[in-house]
Amino acid sequence: MLNIVLFGPPGAGKGTQSERLIEKYGLTHLSTGDIFRANIKGETELGQLAKSYMDQGHLVPDSVTIDMLRAEVLKSNSSKGYIFDGFPRTNAQATALDDFLASIGTQITLMLALEVEENELKNRLLKRAEVSGRPDDADPAIIENRIAVYNRETAPVKSFYQAQNKLIFIDGIGTIDNITDRLFEAVESRNT
Ligand code: ADP
Protein backbone atom coordinates (compact mmCIF):
# COMPACT_ATOMS: atom_id res chain seq x y z
CA MET A 1 0.00 0.00 0.00
CA LEU A 2 1.00 3.59 -0.58
CA ASN A 3 -0.16 5.71 2.37
CA ILE A 4 0.62 9.41 2.07
CA VAL A 5 0.18 12.19 4.60
CA LEU A 6 -0.25 15.38 2.57
CA PHE A 7 0.72 18.10 4.99
CA GLY A 8 0.86 21.88 5.06
CA PRO A 9 -0.66 25.02 6.54
CA PRO A 10 -4.19 26.17 5.68
CA GLY A 11 -4.20 27.35 2.07
CA ALA A 12 -1.10 25.39 1.07
CA GLY A 13 -2.99 23.56 -1.69
CA LYS A 14 -3.56 20.17 -0.07
CA GLY A 15 -7.04 19.69 -1.54
CA THR A 16 -6.02 20.59 -5.09
CA GLN A 17 -2.90 18.42 -5.05
CA SER A 18 -4.74 15.51 -3.38
CA GLU A 19 -6.89 15.21 -6.48
CA ARG A 20 -3.79 14.84 -8.67
CA LEU A 21 -2.23 12.21 -6.40
CA ILE A 22 -5.46 10.22 -6.19
CA GLU A 23 -5.81 10.16 -9.94
CA LYS A 24 -2.24 9.05 -10.51
CA TYR A 25 -1.92 6.41 -7.81
CA GLY A 26 -5.53 5.26 -7.34
CA LEU A 27 -5.57 6.27 -3.69
CA THR A 28 -8.55 6.79 -1.42
CA HIS A 29 -8.86 10.40 -0.26
CA LEU A 30 -9.56 11.06 3.40
CA SER A 31 -9.85 14.78 4.16
CA THR A 32 -10.95 15.39 7.74
CA GLY A 33 -12.00 18.96 6.83
CA ASP A 34 -14.21 17.64 3.98
CA ILE A 35 -15.72 14.96 6.22
CA PHE A 36 -16.53 17.53 8.91
CA ARG A 37 -18.06 19.87 6.33
CA ALA A 38 -20.21 17.02 4.93
CA ASN A 39 -21.44 16.37 8.48
CA ILE A 40 -22.25 20.05 8.98
CA LYS A 41 -24.21 20.05 5.74
CA GLY A 42 -26.03 16.86 6.74
CA GLU A 43 -26.80 18.40 10.14
CA THR A 44 -25.44 15.41 12.05
CA GLU A 45 -24.48 15.52 15.72
CA LEU A 46 -20.80 15.31 14.75
CA GLY A 47 -21.30 18.21 12.34
CA GLN A 48 -22.86 20.38 15.03
CA LEU A 49 -19.97 19.70 17.36
CA ALA A 50 -17.30 20.26 14.70
CA LYS A 51 -18.85 23.51 13.48
CA SER A 52 -18.43 25.23 16.83
CA TYR A 53 -14.66 24.68 16.62
CA MET A 54 -14.16 25.15 12.88
CA ASP A 55 -15.96 28.49 12.67
CA GLN A 56 -13.48 29.89 15.20
CA GLY A 57 -10.43 28.37 13.52
CA HIS A 58 -9.82 25.97 16.40
CA LEU A 59 -9.10 22.27 16.09
CA VAL A 60 -11.86 19.77 16.66
CA PRO A 61 -10.86 17.71 19.75
CA ASP A 62 -8.45 14.82 19.10
CA SER A 63 -10.70 12.09 20.49
CA VAL A 64 -13.57 13.04 18.15
CA THR A 65 -11.31 13.42 15.12
CA ILE A 66 -9.36 10.20 15.69
CA ASP A 67 -12.52 8.09 16.18
CA MET A 68 -14.02 9.54 13.03
CA LEU A 69 -10.87 8.92 10.97
CA ARG A 70 -10.61 5.29 12.09
CA ALA A 71 -14.23 4.68 11.19
CA GLU A 72 -13.72 6.23 7.73
CA VAL A 73 -10.67 4.05 6.99
CA LEU A 74 -12.53 0.89 8.01
CA LYS A 75 -15.57 1.92 5.96
CA SER A 76 -13.56 2.63 2.81
CA ASN A 77 -11.54 -0.60 2.67
CA SER A 78 -8.98 0.61 0.11
CA SER A 79 -6.48 -1.80 -1.42
CA LYS A 80 -4.02 0.65 -3.00
CA GLY A 81 -3.68 3.06 -0.10
CA TYR A 82 -4.78 6.36 1.35
CA ILE A 83 -4.01 10.00 1.12
CA PHE A 84 -4.55 11.67 4.48
CA ASP A 85 -5.34 15.35 3.91
CA GLY A 86 -5.64 17.56 7.00
CA PHE A 87 -4.84 14.64 9.31
CA PRO A 88 -2.86 14.14 11.53
CA ARG A 89 -2.88 17.72 12.83
CA THR A 90 -1.44 17.04 16.31
CA ASN A 91 1.19 14.66 17.63
CA ALA A 92 -1.56 12.76 19.47
CA GLN A 93 -3.34 12.20 16.14
CA ALA A 94 -0.08 11.06 14.52
CA THR A 95 0.55 8.51 17.26
CA ALA A 96 -3.04 7.26 17.06
CA LEU A 97 -2.76 6.93 13.28
CA ASP A 98 0.47 4.91 13.51
CA ASP A 99 -1.10 2.57 16.08
CA PHE A 100 -4.28 2.18 14.07
CA LEU A 101 -2.51 1.49 10.76
CA ALA A 102 -0.26 -1.07 12.46
CA SER A 103 -3.39 -2.79 13.80
CA ILE A 104 -4.66 -3.26 10.24
CA GLY A 105 -1.26 -4.37 8.96
CA THR A 106 -0.04 -1.26 7.17
CA GLN A 107 1.82 2.01 7.83
CA ILE A 108 2.47 5.53 6.55
CA THR A 109 4.81 5.47 3.55
CA LEU A 110 5.72 9.15 3.56
CA MET A 111 4.72 12.66 4.53
CA LEU A 112 4.76 15.30 1.81
CA ALA A 113 4.94 18.72 3.47
CA LEU A 114 3.93 21.65 1.27
CA GLU A 115 5.77 24.82 2.19
CA VAL A 116 4.18 28.22 1.54
CA GLU A 117 5.00 31.47 3.31
CA GLU A 118 2.45 33.17 5.50
CA ASN A 119 1.51 36.21 3.40
CA GLU A 120 0.84 34.03 0.38
CA LEU A 121 -1.36 31.75 2.53
CA LYS A 122 -3.46 34.67 3.74
CA ASN A 123 -3.95 35.94 0.19
CA ARG A 124 -4.94 32.51 -1.08
CA LEU A 125 -7.46 31.94 1.73
CA LEU A 126 -9.15 35.32 1.28
CA LYS A 127 -9.36 34.64 -2.45
CA ARG A 128 -10.78 31.16 -1.82
CA ALA A 129 -13.45 32.70 0.45
CA GLU A 130 -14.95 34.38 -2.63
CA VAL A 131 -15.87 30.98 -4.07
CA SER A 132 -15.80 28.49 -1.17
CA GLY A 133 -18.45 30.10 1.02
CA ARG A 134 -16.41 28.83 4.00
CA PRO A 135 -16.92 31.09 7.02
CA ASP A 136 -13.40 30.23 8.26
CA ASP A 137 -11.89 31.65 5.03
CA ALA A 138 -13.75 34.96 4.99
CA ASP A 139 -12.53 36.60 8.20
CA PRO A 140 -8.87 37.73 8.49
CA ALA A 141 -8.96 37.27 12.31
CA ILE A 142 -10.05 33.62 11.92
CA ILE A 143 -7.36 33.05 9.28
CA GLU A 144 -4.75 34.43 11.72
CA ASN A 145 -6.07 32.03 14.31
CA ARG A 146 -5.85 29.02 11.99
CA ILE A 147 -2.26 29.88 11.07
CA ALA A 148 -1.36 30.32 14.76
CA VAL A 149 -2.94 26.96 15.59
CA TYR A 150 -1.01 25.41 12.70
CA ASN A 151 2.30 26.84 13.94
CA ARG A 152 1.66 25.82 17.54
CA GLU A 153 -0.03 22.43 17.29
CA THR A 154 0.32 21.09 13.78
CA ALA A 155 3.82 22.02 12.57
CA PRO A 156 5.41 19.76 15.26
CA VAL A 157 3.90 16.74 13.46
CA LYS A 158 6.69 17.19 10.86
CA SER A 159 9.26 16.16 13.49
CA PHE A 160 7.21 13.07 14.26
CA TYR A 161 7.63 11.78 10.69
CA GLN A 162 11.13 13.17 10.30
CA ALA A 163 12.18 10.92 13.20
CA GLN A 164 10.90 8.00 11.10
CA ASN A 165 12.73 9.25 8.01
CA LYS A 166 9.45 9.74 6.17
CA LEU A 167 9.34 13.53 5.72
CA ILE A 168 9.86 15.19 2.33
CA PHE A 169 9.52 18.97 1.96
CA ILE A 170 7.85 20.27 -1.19
CA ASP A 171 8.07 23.87 -2.38
CA GLY A 172 4.40 24.91 -2.55
CA ILE A 173 4.97 28.05 -4.63
CA GLY A 174 4.60 27.82 -8.41
CA THR A 175 1.94 26.70 -10.85
CA ILE A 176 -0.37 23.86 -9.82
CA ASP A 177 1.30 21.64 -12.44
CA ASN A 178 4.82 22.49 -11.19
CA ILE A 179 3.87 21.51 -7.68
CA THR A 180 2.19 18.29 -8.86
CA ASP A 181 5.42 17.34 -10.65
CA ARG A 182 7.42 17.90 -7.46
CA LEU A 183 5.00 15.70 -5.52
CA PHE A 184 5.10 12.89 -8.10
CA GLU A 185 8.88 12.99 -8.10
CA ALA A 186 8.95 12.70 -4.31
CA VAL A 187 6.54 9.74 -4.37
CA GLU A 188 8.59 7.97 -7.06
CA SER A 189 11.71 8.40 -4.96
CA ARG A 190 10.11 6.27 -2.22
CA ASN A 191 7.63 4.08 -4.04
CA THR A 192 9.92 1.28 -5.14
P1 ADP B 1 -7.48 24.02 5.85
O1 ADP B 1 -6.39 23.02 5.63
O2 ADP B 1 -7.68 24.91 4.68
O3 ADP B 1 -7.37 24.73 7.15
P2 ADP B 1 -9.41 21.91 6.37
O4 ADP B 1 -10.56 21.70 5.51
O5 ADP B 1 -8.33 20.88 6.40
O6 ADP B 1 -8.87 23.32 5.96
O7 ADP B 1 -9.88 22.10 7.89
C1 ADP B 1 -10.87 23.02 8.27
C2 ADP B 1 -11.12 22.95 9.77
O8 ADP B 1 -11.59 21.64 10.12
C3 ADP B 1 -9.89 23.16 10.66
O9 ADP B 1 -9.60 24.53 10.86
C4 ADP B 1 -10.33 22.44 11.94
O10 ADP B 1 -11.24 23.21 12.68
C5 ADP B 1 -11.11 21.24 11.39
N1 ADP B 1 -10.23 20.07 11.22
C6 ADP B 1 -9.89 19.48 10.04
N2 ADP B 1 -9.05 18.45 10.23
C7 ADP B 1 -8.84 18.37 11.57
C8 ADP B 1 -8.05 17.53 12.41
N3 ADP B 1 -7.28 16.55 11.90
N4 ADP B 1 -8.08 17.75 13.74
C9 ADP B 1 -8.82 18.72 14.28
N5 ADP B 1 -9.58 19.55 13.55
C10 ADP B 1 -9.59 19.41 12.21
Key attributes of the depicted protein:
Rossmann fold
| Helix proportion | 55-70%
Count of DSSP strands: 5
CATH superfamily: P-loop containing nucleotide triphosphate hydrolases
**Bound ligands, each once:** adenosine-5'-diphosphate
The CATH class label is Alpha Beta
Q: Could you tell me how far the N terminus lies from the C terminus, measured between alpha carbons in angstroms?
A: 11 Å
Radius of gyration: 16 Å
Average pLDDT figure: 96
In DSSP terms (H or I, runs of 4 or more residues), the helix count works out at 10
Helix/strand order: EHEHHHEHEHHHHEH
The fraction of residues assigned to DSSP E strands is: 5-15%
Main sheet makeup: 5 strands, parallel
What CATH architecture would you give?
Answer: 3-Layer(aba) Sandwich
Describe it.
- The protein is of the alpha/beta class.
- It has one domain (2-185): P-loop containing nucleotide triphosphate hydrolases (Rossmann fold), CATH 3.40.50.
- It is built from ten helices and five strands.
- It has helices at 14-25, 32-41, 45-54, 62-76, 91-103, 118-132, 135-138, 140-154, 157-162, 176-190, and strands at 4-7, 28-31, 82-85, 110-115, 167-171.
- The chain has a five-stranded parallel β-sheet, with helices on both faces.
- Helix 4 runs parallel beside helix 5.
- It is globular.
- The mean pLDDT is 96.
- Adenosine-5'-diphosphate binds next to helix 2 and helix 3.
